[in-house]
Amino acid sequence: MKKDLYRPNVAMIIVSNNYPLKKEIFIAQRNDLTDVWQFPQGGIDEGEEVHEALFRELEEEIGTDEVKIVAEYPEWITYDFPSKIAVKMKPYKGQKQKYFLVKLKKSAKIDINTAHPEFSDYKFVGVDEALGLSASFKQVVYKTVIGHFKNEGYL
Question: DSSP alpha helices (H): ranges in the chain?
């Protein structure tokens, strides 16, 4: 029997450079799914370290890697793809993610018009609004990770 495969992935909750005075979270609208907003994330390449993937994905998705790591979620967290997405992602059933809370540096310039754009829009919102805008299949993960960062006093 084949074991369920989860794609290794890094994900980031980005706070503005006004943090901790303002706890505004970056969320972006996917350009391939209608009204789906999410945190930046991406696969970890074979042989790539998690932190390398974090900075590479930031550059690829929002045009800057000028961030400071504030905190790291202490464990890997998984979610399953909805059936429509799972078909395109075979052999993976879902993703196994390592989450980071990162703060944009003052010098960071966000540009979602990257070489391979994944987002059509972005904004900074409060924690509750971010949860309300996110895709239903990611809600549990987002609530878990945000809850952890809240409990630790970061959000």
Answer: 50-62, 83-88, 127-133, 139-151
